[in-house]
Amino acid sequence: MLDLTKLTTETRNPDTMDLDEMSPLEIVTTMNREDGKVIEAIHEELPHIAQAIEWSTESLKQGGRLIYMGAGTSGRLGVLDAAECPPTFGVSPDLVVGLIAGGERAFIQAVEGAEDSTVLGVEDLKALGLTEKDTVVGLAASGRTPYVSHALDYAKSVGAHTVAIACNKNSVIGQHADLVIEPVCGPEVLTGSTRLKAGTAQKLILNMISTATMVGLGKVYQNLMVDVQQTNEKLVTRAQNICMAATECSRGEAIEALAAANGHVKTAIVMILNGQTAEDAREALDAAEGHVRGALKA
Question: Which residues are catalytic?
Fold first, then answer.
């Protein structure tokens, strides 16, 4: 029988033994206090998270991908973070990829036995055509998911960077990765329910990895998401607002520049600040590898 008793994520929280007798206010007060421990746990792992960001940035710059993979809540969080990258940063859906044990249907309904498979993770990576240019981030709150550990082994054999994110120290998946990120947030409010603190920790770490990686790729100017895709009315207005914030121009000037730049926010910003044509602004951005600051200095 599988022994889970040594996993912090599976132990009982002494402060919530009377959870079923608490009032709603007492429950949320307790949960809020416990959630504070997540920030502290992640703080200890910041150097490791920064290393993961360096690897993923390197991968994307050389034509590789950032690939998240996990089962259950961990897998869903990876898929969610990957799905948010195209609209936020204007990247291809193929650049940041989320894999979940059991496939897409597992996102909304559990697929029995998928996380325990020793071959599904490997097959998923092979289907993507994994190469040494990629960075693979394996997620497992427990740190023992076979779907993840065997996939990490395969990724290492290919020569890809491998990162393990778990919420228990000395995790099994950590033994199969080049880099280990293990924030230990303590026992869950609801015993074993790792969608709570462990899930929050993983989400926060993925936020850091994807955001900082995109900063490294030039998808951000100042603190503005200058490669946002204008796929709806709200985002069209946001693109105008970003231009206005970056250049202190009027809305009319922003609309005119965006039209000349075929809707490309970074080009419009460089046009306005450098006093250039759209063509010259695009050339300046290309020379600066897409970084607005570099294009402005040029």
Answer: 84, 115
